[in-house]
């Protein structure tokens, strides 16, 4: 079993036009835009990061907003939704807040938790879960309702059994089942340390597009722990990429038996490596390989509102 993983690091989604995405995550969801940069492989597309004050691993949502991207088609072989933790009793405040922003939602219960399921600007499914969570939030919204960070992700697959050995290797064990959903937790448990397998053999394979989750990233401390994880995954027969420097963390990637892309990202060096914490997300930060494109990109990219 791999012992160097520490729950979720971030979740990355494909999006449509950047301004609705940016406004939704800052003004509706109340997260801080902590980094404004570009896609390493497509520099004319933003890579936007949202999270707590400093982008603590486990609080971060990221988006690739392709302005002309068609909507994705939900199905198997993808992460079905992202769940974010809110304080116990906060669902009532969130109900009023979402209604005030014309965001449709439904109230539901799963594993005894109160949850609000809603749809983001590109049709993505998001869930707010009332949970005990001691993480300090970004307080664009009142602290008593503010999102604390990632709670869990659902992994929508046609073959539940195929996913279980990998998740066991990663330190996850079953803690409950309700309908088509199996919950698993790592040894730490609690928000940010949960995944849910959604067994849906009745669905077709997903087609990725705007609103689709591109990959799910798990957290590890540093390059040394990441190397041990890579070696363990490779020994178990998984095809893992070489380490890729993403400026704010180092990453490795591999496809799961269910067809979902997983990443393992390091905690270091963090999002303050190229701009002060006080002004995170306010300026366009470029990877070194794209620095020579600054004038062109500042002209080509859609202007975003200055973060509050």
TrEMBL record:
Entries under InterPro entries matching the protein: Extradiol_RC_dioxygenase, Glyas_Bleomycin-R_OHBP_Dase, Glyas_Fos-R_dOase_dom, VOC_core
GO MF annotation terms: dioxygenase activity
Keywords per UniProt: Dioxygenase, Oxidoreductase
Pfam families xrefs: Glyoxalase
Superkingdom classification of source: Bacteria
Every VOC domain range: 7-131, 149-267
Species per Swiss-Prot/TrEMBL record: Rhodosalinus sediminis
Keyword Oxidoreductase: yes
Xref: Gene3D superfamilies: 2,3-Dihydroxybiphenyl 1,2-Dioxygenase, domain 1
Name the record gives this protein: Ring-cleaving dioxygenase
Lineage summary: Bacteria, Pseudomonadati, Pseudomonadota, Alphaproteobacteria, Rhodobacterales
């Amino acid at each position: 079993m791999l012992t160097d993983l520490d729950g979720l690091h971030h979740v990355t989604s494909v999006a449509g036009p950047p301004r609705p995405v940016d406004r939704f995550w800052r003004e509706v969801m109340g997260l801080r835009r902590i980094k404004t940069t570009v896609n390493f492989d497509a520099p004319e597309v933003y890579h936007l990061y949202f999270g707590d004050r400093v982008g603590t691993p486990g609080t971060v949502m990221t988006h690739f907003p392709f302005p002309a991207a068609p909507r994705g088609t939900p199905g198997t072989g993808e992460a079905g939704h992202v769940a974010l933790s809110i304080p116990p009793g906060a669902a009532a405040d969130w109900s009023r807040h979402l209604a005030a922003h014309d965001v449709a939602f439904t109230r539901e219960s799963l594993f005894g938790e109160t949850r609000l399921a809603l749809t983001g600007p590109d049709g993505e499914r998001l869930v707010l879960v009332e949970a005990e969570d001691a993480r300090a939030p970004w307080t664009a919204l009142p602290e008593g309702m503010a999102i604390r960070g990632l709670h869990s992700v659902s992994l929508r697959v046609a073959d539940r059994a195929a996913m279980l050995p990998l998740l066991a290797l990663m330190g996850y064990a079953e803690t409950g089942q309700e309908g088509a959903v199996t919950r698993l937790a790592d040894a730490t448990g609690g928000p940010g340390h949960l995944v849910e397998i959604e067994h849906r053999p009745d669905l077709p394979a997903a087609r990725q597009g705007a609103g689709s989750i591109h990959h799910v990233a798990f957290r590890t401390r540093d390059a040394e722990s990441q190397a041990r994880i890579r070696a363990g995954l490779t020994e178990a027969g998984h095809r893992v990429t070489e380490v890729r420097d993403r400026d704010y963390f180092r990453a490795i990637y591999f496809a799961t038996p269910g067809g979902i892309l997983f990443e393992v990202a390091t905690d270091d060096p963090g999002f303050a490596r190229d701009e002060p914490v006080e002004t995170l997300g306010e300026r366009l930060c470029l990877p070194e390989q794209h620095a020579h494109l600054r004038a062109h990109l500042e002209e080509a990219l859609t202007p975003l509102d200055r973060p509050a």
